[in-house]
Write a structure and sequence with these properties.
Blueprint lengths: L6 E7 L4 H14 L4 E6 L14 E4 L8 H7 L2 H7 L1 H10 L4 E5 L3 E3 L4 H6 L5 E3 L11 H11 L6 E5 L2 H14 L4 E3 L4 E3 L7 H4 L3 E3 L17 E4 L2 E4 L2 E2 L2 E3 L16 H4 L4 H16 L2 H4 L10 H24 L1 H16 L1
Helix pairs in contact: 1-10, 4-7
């Protein structure tokens, strides 16, 4: 059995984004056909409007998330999708796969994914950095935005079965159970900022700097995409997967087009890929799926409970800050300066 046959790819979406998942997994089928393909549905399909698919759909409420009923109502739709990632990856291991790959639903593969699987034969955790070299333009501003968002993009995580990946998933699950949110004061950006700690805390981490992995709006200025003999390439390397986050306008409505605020300065080859992607979303059911309502509304009681949790978290943060040695030292120095005047 090939390594790819013991591997699986998973994404997480709501019903209104199901066309994105279909588009992604169709590209995975072309470029890693032996791998299992899964969608964790961060939603419900009680009326079966998703239809029969050639991949497996796993309802989020069937995952072993603590207090899953509270979990699905804790977050808004996008946050629920991001918070579910570590449980989605763990589910692939529970089903017997040796290699588990998460990809955001707004990604498309353009060349073979087998090198990804092969790298997981030696590495335990694969991550892709947002930047692999100094960005162009306003360097300070570009790099500052990445510092705030996190060094590694959470749209891709690759894992191989082992003690290190198990510890990583348990740790990430613990962080995202309640704290998958944006709070600049606490250094939180949904699921992503936590990944900054992973290379220092876990064994077997490989940072993939291949220019064709996770090409996206935040690195396109340093990763020029061109068509060579009908195939997209990034310099001398193949384009492996392109992350379309922010490259389309129109929200989640059907008939999406290139986002002119972002794409006007991009190369014609990239603009053509974006146009092809918009067309692919239409063919994969954008008109049908984008209108489907979201199942998990946040109840007033749940909102009050989570607000109380957030207040307690901030209080703990404040207590830690004012009782730290550094804080006491600053107060002591300030008092000494006041006394010396």
């Amino acid at each position: 059995m090939s390594a790819a046959a013991t591997s699986a790819v998973v994404t997480v979406v709501t019903r209104s984004h199901f066309h994105r998942a279909r588009c992604l997994l169709d590209s995975v089928q072309r470029h890693l056909p032996e791998a299992g393909r899964f969608v964790v549905l961060a939603d419900r399909d009680d009326d079966r409007r998703l239809g029969e698919q050639d991949f497996e759909v796993i309802p989020v409420e069937t995952l072993p998330v603590p207090d899953v009923a509270g979990f699905v109502r804790r977050y808004h739709a996008q946050q629920l999708c991001t918070a579910t990632k570590p449980w989605a990856l763990a589910e692939l291991f529970r089903r017997g796969y040796e290699r588990a790959i998460y990809l955001d639903a707004d990604i498309v593969a353009y060349s073979t994914l087998r090198p990804m699987v092969e790298m997981l034969g030696a590495a335990t955790i694969l991550l892709t950095p947002h930047l692999t070299e100094t960005p162009g333009g306003d360097v300070f501003e570009s790099e500052r935005r990445i510092l705030l968002a996190g060094a590694y993009n959470a749209g891709f995580v690759g894992l191989s079965r082992g003690p290190s990946s198990a510890r990583f998933l348990a740790w990430w699950q613990d962080k995202l159970l309640h704290d998958c949110r944006v709070d600049a004061a606490l250094g939180l950006v949904d699921d992503q900022r936590w990944l900054d700690l992973v290379p220092g805390m876990f064994d077997g981490v490989c940072i993939v700097r291949h220019p064709g992995w996770n090409v996206a709006r935040w690195n396109l200025d340093r990763r020029p995409v061109a068509m060579v003999a009908g195939e997209p390439r990034v310099g001398a390397e193949p384009l492996v997967f392109l992350h379309f986050s922010g490259l389309l306008s129109g929200g989640d409505s059907p008939g999406q087009q290139r986002n002119p605020d972002v794409t006007a300065s991009l190369a014609p080859s990239v603009q053509a890929l974006i146009d092809d992607y918009a067309g692919s979303l239409e063919r994969h059911g954008a008109k049908q799926y984008s209108q489907l309502p979201y199942a998990f509304a946040r109840s007033p009681a749940r909102f009050r409970a989570e607000t109380l949790y957030r207040m307690k978290a901030r209080a703990r943060h404040l207590v830690h800050a004012v009782t730290s040695t550094a804080f006491r030292r600053r107060i002591r120095l300030w008092l000494q300066e006041r006394a010396a005047r």
